[in-house]
Sequence to fold (311 residues):
Amino acid sequence: MTTSAAYADFAAREAHGVSPTYERLALAVSRDDALLALLDTLPPAKRQPNLLFGVVRLLGGPVDDPVAFRDFTESNWPAVAAGCRSRATQTNEAGRCAVVLPVLAALPQPLALLEVGASAGLNLYPDRYAYRYGEHRLGAGEPVLDCDLTGTAPPARRPEVVWRAGLDLNPLDVTEPADVRWLDALIWPEHARRRERLRAAAAVVAADPPSLVRGDLVDDLPALAAQAPPDATLVVFHTSVLYQVPQPRREAFAQVVRGLPGHWVANEAPQVLPYEGLPEPPDAALRNVLALDGRPLAWTWPHGQAATWFA
Ligand SMILES: C[S@@+](CC[C@H](N)C(=O)[O-])C[C@H]1O[C@@H](n2cnc3c(N)ncnc32)[C@H](O)[C@@H]1O
Fold:
């Protein structure tokens, strides 16, 4: 796919109906030959809209006006390019806990949670957040994770977590203001609720920081899994990670995780972790598939705002 097509696709499939600002911006970039030429000087993985827009926001650039955005990006190209080269999209969305929770709560307790592609580890605390599934509430305090659940009953309890650890190529630290600023810059402009949620979840995590290991989800998973207490149910899980992993490594990862004791919870796009016999997605927008031990269970919305269980 050309860079222009990738930006047009992002506008139509990811930003449309979710962020008018990014939809407008991505469409403008898709038609801007000068900007596209600059982007094409970056390695392919570093040309993506979320990365470019996040870096420009981090540098204090405007994203609400495509002309001002282009002027800023062109005049600050060395800093923008350096930011794109040195950073990765590591959006850490605590809201995704709400779609994973029904699966975690149904497993034998207590749990030892091991998240691969953990970013700052916000999803390692499903037992500490509050949830609202329609009228059904679980837990108290902030953040409150809202989720529109259909096709399954909401969980009756939060899981009991006795051990948690994360693995990431580049773990972020919520006690570091610079890391929190990057996580904030990755949240789309109109998403004030998500920004509040990041702040609230980061406060929960900063009060009791997780063990986050720098490493690769294939090479370094067995050693970290071996540290989990044997009397808890080991759950290796990941959400919106494998699209960043080359195809042969995804297969290697699936093989490694299948060889471990315990359970495997995946929440990934169907293109990156395909399953046979998936039902039609509810609409044309990007959805993830929630799966337990390789068995697909539900379509989930990208930020955990809804999930539709398969009939
Ligand atoms: C889009 S973020 C998602 C973060 C988190 N799972 C969530 O849903 O909020 C993807 C994360 O996967 C990490 N990642 C990508 N490839 C990886 C690999 N091979 N091994 C470990 N982590 C990886 C990235 O560094 C990034 O932090």
Notes: The pocket of S-adenosylmethionine is lined by residues 88-93, 96, 116-119, 123, 167-170, 216-217, 238-241, 244-245 (CB under 6 Å). The radius of gyration is 19 Å.
